[in-house]
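Structure tokens please, single chain.
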Amino acid sequence: MSVRILKMEKESCPAARLIGKKYESGGNWDEWWANNWFEKLEAVQGLSINDHGYIGAVRVVNGTPEYWIGIFFPADTQVPEGFEAVDIEPLEYAVFYLYGGKNNGEFYSIDTHNMCLEELKAHNLQRKEDAWCFERYNCPRYTTPDEKGNVILDYGISITGEGVTHL
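Here you go.
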């Protein structure tokens, strides 16, 4: 596997609102670029990708994965026309800074997810069942490849219990 974990940090996230669009299977990033939906959301509060990053998120609801693409906002943010929202309770996350080539597909594989789960176990952390996992596409870490053509993707997994603050 060419993707590796650069570091892991524990993040405490307050209640938030994920504003975007819900999908039944995966997400359609191409329609986001074609319709300038990220630009429309950034205008909601004058945000930029440098402030938060674009989010791809998934959770399990009644045994079925629910996928979202959008941006995290404060919990009371009004939802613009044409978008949906889901309110997210305050959660603890283990955020993995994954390093690799974004075009080889390994960032988005079950193998990468399982590698992160193994790292959780190694630090006595436990995934919170059926809670959120997310990919945070942060600029410039994800948008500007290094000299080897690699980028850094933030991958968050909801956790329970105590553990390390960083690795």
